[in-house]
Amino acid sequence: MGFTSKIVLLKNRKKKDGTYPINVRITVNGKQTYIPLGLHLPEKEWDAKNQRLKSSSKVVENTTRFNNLIGKQLSKLNDASTALLDRGILFDLDIKEIGQFLKWGLKAENDDVVNAIDDLAQGHPVELATGKSVKSGSQSKDVFEYLTSSIKQFRKAGRNGYAKSHEDLLYKLKSFHNGKTLRFEQINYAFLKRLEAEHLADGNSYGGLGVYLRTLRARYNDAIKEGLVHKKHYPFSEYTIKKGSPDRKALSDSSFEALLEIDLKGNVAEERARDLFLTSYYLRGMNWMDMALLKVSDLNNDLSRLTYQRQKTGKRYSIAIHPKLLEIIAKHIDLKEAQSGDFVFPILSDEIEEADYYEVIKEKRNTLNRTLGRIGKKIGAPDITFYSARHTYATRSKRKGVPTSAIQEALGHSTEQVTQGYLESFEDQVIDAYDEMLFSE
Questions:
Q1: Contact indicator for 129, 108 with CB cutoff of 8 Å
Q2: Largest CA distance in the chain
Q3: 392-406 residue pLDDT tens
Q4: CATH match of 253-439 with 1.10.443
Q5: Buried/exposed code over 33-62 (b: 16+ C-beta within 10 A; e: otherwise)
């Protein structure tokens, strides 16, 4: 994952006295932000190669002390950036947000920086420019009101993914609990066991339940800190959130062959749905968000490779474009006429505001899954979803003899991170070779 820092003299910011400001340039996945150190030097006094004041300089009384000061500030910024990276936060923030947080972190006490990062890691809304945790804004002991207030705060902080997970939890609790209000004290061990039983009875998995309950646990902890409920009522000391094993969602070989062969001509929606499913398959199980954001600029000039950055992890991938995939892409965009900024697939368009991407992508994924469901009934795979493409790629690869150390199907791993860890250890060309074997049947 791309993260670097470097001390630089900003030569485009010349002051009236002829000096230039010293900044730390932070680069995250190719995007840059600059953190001012509050120090200035003439250009001739700066050793750009070693990122320090020249030892022969006479502009300060003690060059060693000056350089040590710069070094300490760089170290503090690196420590904060590394902590964000280690806690899985760095790539959830855009470069502007990273800059805001680090500018504050440079001046803040170390303990305050650590506490702010802890809050971010736990999904709490934080004002990045001040490091302050944003309280729910509600003094209500009603869980529904508390969650509603939290959702507003997450939206205000620009954390739409967290807001959505809290909206899902709110809907889940309201559907389960008949009363108009729900006090924190009412959520006890028995309440959670009943919720679990109803969730499973509806045919849902422990994995899905865990998503709801981890969100609820985080907000319950906040409510305790805010004095809205006594810690003696905390239900998660007794109740353990179970980790569900991933369901096998891969298509069987016969269903996959049927998907390839079924005649969908005349049904534009179903033909497009199959194309998008197969695109994910040919791109090693690319997820829906990343596919929606693919642009022509992600394709190299001779259309032999596609390079993209995964939204969830920030990791960059480079994948060979198989002829079957190129054929699909060409159906959806005129590559000779397309501009570099054009979207590859008709999921997003220039008319859609970037702030609306999340909702549009989610809505179109739901529509796609309904369409895939109709196709699935025709080919004997009624449970097919877009995500099945990822499992199908992994499972079929394993059946073809691809080493499990090169690509590991999801079965047996509790997190997607484990699966990705196996893939990352191999060169792109090695995986390309396995893809060629898999796709060229």
A1: no
A2: 81
A3: 888 888 777 777 666
A4: yes
A5: bbbebebbbeeebbeeeebbbeeebeeeee
